[in-house]
Amino acid sequence: MNNELLTVNEVAEKLRTTPNTIYRWLRAGKFPGVKIGKEWRIKSEVLEAKLADSHLPGEISYLDKLNCRHDHIMAVTSSASEVYDLEAEFFKRGMREGRRLFKGCWWQNREEVRRELSVRGLAVEELEKRNMLAIVDLADSFNRNGEKGPVQIWLEEADRSLAMGYEAMWGSGSPNLLSCGEDFSKLLNFEHSLDESLEKAPIVGICPYVFNIETKDCFNYFIHLMNHHKGVLFYSNGPATFFRRETSQL
């Protein structure tokens, strides 16, 4: 029996996910591991058993609950790092579904996105070269064209995906409360318009936000934003929790 101990990074690479995802599974008890000092180790036999299992913990429940052709989900995270972890998981699932990927940048810049997604296991350079991933500056589009500008980019990239033969596009834009000229009403208008547009287009979209309790009225702002999405995902270093909005109000 092979009792080799693997590092978190080694396991993440074999499962094509992120080290932070493996840490969450370990802490939540979804993945057996042992602690040696401050470091986690996973027995290779455990990994082999999981790879042979028909339901790996990597098939995260919130991803299974997405409508694979039309959806618009708000995600609440606690840090920029968690936004990238979520986006990497989301994009990897989109690739397994055979979808083209779209990344809209607000507070992030494109080079940072390329670096962070690459670190998390996405072949960003190759995906862009093959036009399987588009990384676009939505903040610049808003500054030039207002709330409608970023929405139009989402739709144009979806049309481009269809023209390339894809059935749908999986996209992530990650605004913050100050993204639309520091005017929250404009951010609401953007999310409302995007929500309506995504109902008619073959797009699965997520909008990850970083919750900062020190931001004035942050909680109230987030409640308003939730009402302009089809569901809400709470995503952290613990288990992710997903709620589907059944009516016009949460």
How much is the average pLDDT?
Answer: 88
Structure annotation, total helices: 11
Spatial sequence of strands, sheet with the most strands: 6-5-7-8-4-9-10
Approximately how much helix is present in the residues? Answer: 40-55%
Structural class: alpha/beta
Nearest-angstrom radius of gyration? Answer: 19 Å
Shape: globular
Query: Helices and strands, in N-to-C order?
Result: EHHEEHHEHEHHEHHEHEHEE
The N- to C-terminal Cα distance equals 51 Å
What is the strand content?
Answer: 15-25%
Q: pLDDT below 50 for ≥5 consecutive residues: which ranges? A: none
Mind summarizing the main beta sheet? 7 strands, mixed
**Count of DSSP E strands?**
10
Q: What's this model, at a glance?
A:
The protein has 250 residues and is α/β, with parallel strands linked by helices. Helix content is 46%, strand content 20%. The strands form 2 sheets. It has a 7-stranded mixed sheet with strand order 6-5-7-8-4-9-10, sandwiched between helices.
How would you sum up this structure, described in words?
This protein is an alpha/beta fold and about 250 residues long. It has eleven helices and ten strands. It has helices at about 10-15, 20-30, 45-50, 60-65, 80-95, 110-120, 125-130, 140-145, 150-165, 185-200, 220-225, and strands spanning about 5, 35, 40-45, 70-75, 100-105, 135, 170-175, 205-210, 230-235, 240-245. A hairpin with a 2-residue loop joins strand 2 (about 35) and strand 3. Helix 8 (about 140-145) crosses helix 9 (about 150-165) and helix 9 (about 150-165) runs parallel beside helix 10 (about 185-200). The chain starts with a strand and ends in a 6-residue tail after the last strand. The model has no long low-confidence stretch (mean pLDDT about 90).
